[in-house]
Amino acid sequence: MRTLDTRDVRDLPAVEAHGLETEPYYLPIGDEVEVFRAAYEARLPVLLKGPTGCGKTRFVEYMAYQIYRGSASESHAAVATPLITVACHEDLSSTDMVGRYLLVGDETVWIDGPLTRAVRSGAICYLDEVVEARKDTTVLIHALTDHRRILPIEKQGVILDAHEHFLLVLSYNPGYQSVLKDLKPSTRQRFVSLEFDYPPAEQEARIIAHESSVDDDMAADLAALGAKVRQLRQHGFEEGVSTRLLVYAGQLVARGISVHRACDVAISRAITDDVEVQRAVAEIVATIFP
Amino acid sequence: MRTLDTRDVRDLPAVEAHGLETEPYYLPIGDEVEVFRAAYEARLPVLLKGPTGCGKTRFVEYMAYQIYRGSASESHAAVATPLITVACHEDLSSTDMVGRYLLVGDETVWIDGPLTRAVRSGAICYLDEVVEARKDTTVLIHALTDHRRILPIEKQGVILDAHEHFLLVLSYNPGYQSVLKDLKPSTRQRFVSLEFDYPPAEQEARIIAHESSVDDDMAADLAALGAKVRQLRQHGFEEGVSTRLLVYAGQLVARGISVHRACDVAISRAITDDVEVQRAVAEIVATIFP
Amino acid sequence: MRTLDTRDVRDLPAVEAHGLETEPYYLPIGDEVEVFRAAYEARLPVLLKGPTGCGKTRFVEYMAYQIYRGSASESHAAVATPLITVACHEDLSSTDMVGRYLLVGDETVWIDGPLTRAVRSGAICYLDEVVEARKDTTVLIHALTDHRRILPIEKQGVILDAHEHFLLVLSYNPGYQSVLKDLKPSTRQRFVSLEFDYPPAEQEARIIAHESSVDDDMAADLAALGAKVRQLRQHGFEEGVSTRLLVYAGQLVARGISVHRACDVAISRAITDDVEVQRAVAEIVATIFP
Amino acid sequence: MRTLDTRDVRDLPAVEAHGLETEPYYLPIGDEVEVFRAAYEARLPVLLKGPTGCGKTRFVEYMAYQIYRGSASESHAAVATPLITVACHEDLSSTDMVGRYLLVGDETVWIDGPLTRAVRSGAICYLDEVVEARKDTTVLIHALTDHRRILPIEKQGVILDAHEHFLLVLSYNPGYQSVLKDLKPSTRQRFVSLEFDYPPAEQEARIIAHESSVDDDMAADLAALGAKVRQLRQHGFEEGVSTRLLVYAGQLVARGISVHRACDVAISRAITDDVEVQRAVAEIVATIFP
Amino acid sequence: MRTLDTRDVRDLPAVEAHGLETEPYYLPIGDEVEVFRAAYEARLPVLLKGPTGCGKTRFVEYMAYQIYRGSASESHAAVATPLITVACHEDLSSTDMVGRYLLVGDETVWIDGPLTRAVRSGAICYLDEVVEARKDTTVLIHALTDHRRILPIEKQGVILDAHEHFLLVLSYNPGYQSVLKDLKPSTRQRFVSLEFDYPPAEQEARIIAHESSVDDDMAADLAALGAKVRQLRQHGFEEGVSTRLLVYAGQLVARGISVHRACDVAISRAITDDVEVQRAVAEIVATIFP
Amino acid sequence: MRTLDTRDVRDLPAVEAHGLETEPYYLPIGDEVEVFRAAYEARLPVLLKGPTGCGKTRFVEYMAYQIYRGSASESHAAVATPLITVACHEDLSSTDMVGRYLLVGDETVWIDGPLTRAVRSGAICYLDEVVEARKDTTVLIHALTDHRRILPIEKQGVILDAHEHFLLVLSYNPGYQSVLKDLKPSTRQRFVSLEFDYPPAEQEARIIAHESSVDDDMAADLAALGAKVRQLRQHGFEEGVSTRLLVYAGQLVARGISVHRACDVAISRAITDDVEVQRAVAEIVATIFP
């Protein structure tokens, strides 16, 4: 795979189909599935708001599976790649999203970026943590989210009409965004906004049990621990603990690490460097696992 | 479309003609149509000021249709692309606007940027949110908006006289511009300025009904909701709600989502992350849809 | 014009000769014509200071016409391009001004920048709003404005002696320059400085009548309006109104827009977003056009 | 080695196997070996926190040796390069980590970056001082540390599934990180976190004796010195002294430099430019080596 | 001269010899000629400090003429280019000073930068306003100004011994340098420092008469004017007026402009935008030319 | 030397051997020679701290000569280039230090940077004023200064084991470093630190006499002058005067400049622009040379 010839580039497989051969594991909390489906039917762009690790990525994978694989729509089933995810960061330019020319041998070939692939093929394009992206990317968003539904590809001098199945979905975390990195009103007023939070204790326990192979009691205790740690937010600790870290603690316990030590390395020290907060978490652990 | 050969570049179709085969839907509020037409006749550049989503883009599409398609002028009808829109952003350079050389095979070809295409062909060039563009683009504006009406293309070493039908139109939103991103007086004093605001309730209800397929009562209620939410601006909430979001709410209702939930995801959470403002909006919703 | 071959580049016409086939319209206010001519005869560089839209660009076009076209000097008449204007901006580098190598086919050709063309051919080179240019351009200015009158072209490794007719003219607006963008003393002490202001009412009325086809009364009223609006500067409104905007108002009136509305869109809203100032202007309009 | 031809690039040896032919010297302090092994078995990413020179790099080398060389797992033994280390810095881009195209002769070849090599081959990839890296690298981390375990290689347009043995390990020093260079919660909540500190006196003495060839008494005295210097942290001196510097002092003593001078150049002046702190250290030295 | 072929680049004439065919006009003020000559004989680098337009550039031209053209030294006479001047600015990189590779046709040729040409040929290299240059250029200065007298050309991988006649001369203006743009002590302590100020009135009058063709009385009055304007510095006006501007005023007078108007445009408005200072200067003018 | 062909690049001589054919002149002050030798024998990296012009560069040249030329070690004598110096600055990247690909004709050749040459050949690599370098260079330092002694060359995809004779030596001046440009603890705790100051009066007099050809009395007086000027540091003048400037003064005296004037231009005005400090220095001069 070290050498690239022209043929390779032209025949690149639809590699982004990754991960949706089987139904992703997702437990609905409220009516978010119905609202998303209605928005999708009207092709209204969707914004997912919520804290770190509360399940936004899983939700959009789940919805993509339901819409493209779980329904009877033949034209949806024909879309090879239902979901194309772009993790945004401050060096991500519109060129990265749209595509670029590449010199291959003595020939110039064009390679579509992930947004262009989604627009062309009819996939859901999911821009994760969109406020981290460079500002020039928000421009691409505008023309795709109003009545025009077009993607201008300036470098090729063409304007692409979006595939009828295409939808843009964004996520962002209002909790730790700075003023400088807020969404402009002219951008955010183009999206239906769904808010997410950590799952209720019972559902979180089911997730922990499902993903870490601990028994139901341990899973319930870890979910209870998560709920208590999140209450620390009211005492000045801004971040909660993600479901993922609770699962980590369970996985370490399942491999023989003591529950105190597992909570220490997977929760307490993972969420903070502040010894006060670490001590507060340790006390919660000691209460739940005496 | 993955490979580009020299012929492709030379024969690129006039792709920007998008969207003006049919008359765009626009409801005039005052005499903005007459003023724009008089400015166009004198070829005076126009600046459209106003908040997010109040219809500036639609208005310029509508005027382009009226001038190039709806009139009897044969020379206007001959312009294949009446309107070329550039969504401005801080990485947009004058090169992006004017054009660049591209290496195709072993040949160097020049590709016009959108401004050059408009200047050459006689289109209206609409620079949306112009203060977001890099400063070097304002220079292009100057020579095109005084008695010279020329576009210097430095990279080709030529100076282009603007087509007799060419006009430059800018938009900007005075509400959330920082001091740093204001238009310089030497730029703004080259434009006739038209101010826009959200449409009056009755007209907005007609727009909502037209675009979301809800009945007239629901449309009137949503328009009333929009008016009340915009009054919150007087209580510290700077942004209003765009007509577009009211249409979104209508579309969700039309697909079976309850009106409370629809207003929650399409209005309340879409316009703000501030729980106080969200609560105020919810109270307005409860009043209108008891 | 989409493809560029080597021959094209070599035979590029003197495209900058634009606009001086006929005498530009300029009404002298004081002795600025005589001072400029004396400075030109001694080849002293000239700096034009003054607010937006007060006629600096027109003045330099007028002087270039007088010196190269209106005089009997055969060597001046032989200069094909009397005036080369560069609108400065913060991305304008010395490379843009001096020239660059361009790869054409498999050959490297050199293309002169506008300053080099002026130095070589004996034109007046007018750097408009020079403090906006990148600092490396001021260096080019130094060697051209002392006893050396040379232009070093580092990329070619040559030093060009300026043509005997060459002169450098700069403009800047002291009113809204920040401290960071001031001219360094080592630069500004190389120029004879001419200060400009808006024309007196009678002359401004003549300009408005000449350029907008309104009758003399309307032109006089609009000039009176301009004078009153500029007095607002003493009440905290920093910018005045340019003669150009008064002409715009006249042009709209000539096309059937009411004088109140014409003053509203071409003056009041064009010069400011501040509702207080807009109201003050409206009151002046109501006084003059009762 | 000065010339590179295509064959060279293709046949590049697995050069990163450096340093793990023999077991690295590491003295476990607590249960860090067991916790790391459990995390590795569950393929949970690991974050090592701790001050300068306390042994984090050695620890990860030791664990890589234990897992890939010291175990009976044949598939682990087949991994030619158990550990790939990337020292992060602010100019390190995702391109440096993932790989780039290189023009060799007239052929374009792709060269994997260190992260891609680890993902492909099943190595542990250790990102040392990760908060120093550019933000775009944290994006690479996300997709590799959740259920997807994928590495998107945008420049090739492919997505790589991580080898089953791959694990990502990060280090950072919470002591002197600025607020601007903290790990984002959405990043750090993907890692099990192990905290490190300087070793206890007895173990540090064994390390000093092992690495500097001084006798046990001298090693014990130097370890005691280290402990006392670190207590200065409570008096406003933020940094301690690393074990490495204590070893340096021992090595200078072993080569005939007096212990006072050795502690002066290898400890006192090496850890600070502050004469107050230097004096405090000198007093401690005088107490231990009277 | 528009096309460059390989031969052109190789045979570039020694174009920098500009301006020293005849003896530059310079009036010594004190012993600066003797001190410079002694420093040159010991090859001690020289720093010229002083305000704008006081004659530093003329002085170094004069000394270069004296040393290379006015002396009997045959080896000095053999240096084709006695003085190579570089006007420093913030975009001037070490590459600009040292040289670069240029692709000419299908061949790569190296072109020496101005510093390299001076080092190679034995010229005086004069870096004007050196603190404006990028910091990487000061590094070049270091190795050329200590006992090594070498210039490392990293891009060629060679180190050049300076020609025996080479000398580095710098200028800077301590008056308006910011703290950020000061010379580092490790740089400035490599130079003998000569301070310059405006010439005494009698000498300045001789210069004005020599360069502007006004009679001796007018020249004496203008010199007296200059002295008085410079005293304003004690009243908060930081910059003085350069000799050059006094010459400008004389030249305008010689071309028929009244002396009041000439002082207005060439002095008062040329040195400041501050109306208070302009008024103060006008009063001085009225006193001297009643 | 203007054209570069492939052969030239491959056969580049070991040009950096400059300056060590003869023993550099260095007067040891204390035991710095012994400590450096012991550190070198244990291959402990060395950091030289001290003010401008106190002899750090000379010292490292002297040590390199002693170790590679003055000893009986045959393998040291075989190192063609004992010392490779890199003057650090803020634009120095790791690419400059490690090496880069160069296109020569139609072939790509690799050229080692100075650090790579030292690592490969066994030289001492001296990074002068290391805190001025870009941060990415400190990363190179880390892997070369711990037990690994490796240099990763990312662009070639190889890791180089350091030659057994290689040693890294750094210098920095703690006096005028800003907080932003301090060495990170994780970097500085990898070095044995030797502090330097100006030489005592007697030794400094010997240096002045040796390098400027003045007699012993004058040399002693200049050394006494240096000592007194450095005491001004206690009165708010931060920088002292370097030995180099005292030598300059001696050289000017030896060429007939009066001692007062020589001290004026080579000391007083060379070290400061502050007239108070200049006056204080002048008084000291008047005392010593009455």
From TrEMBL, chains A, B, C, D, E, F:
Keyword terms of this UniProt record: ATP-binding, Nucleotide-binding
One annotated GO molecular function: ATP binding
Every ATPase dynein-related AAA domain range: 45-191
InterPro entries hit by this protein: ATPase_dyneun-rel_AAA, CbbQ/NirQ/NorQ/GpvN, CbbQ_C, P-loop_NTPase
Residue span, CbbQ/NirQ/NorQ C-terminal domain: 204-287
Family per similarity comment: Belongs to the CbbQ/NirQ/NorQ/GpvN family.
Protein name in UniProt: ATPase AAA
Organism: Candidatus Entotheonella gemina
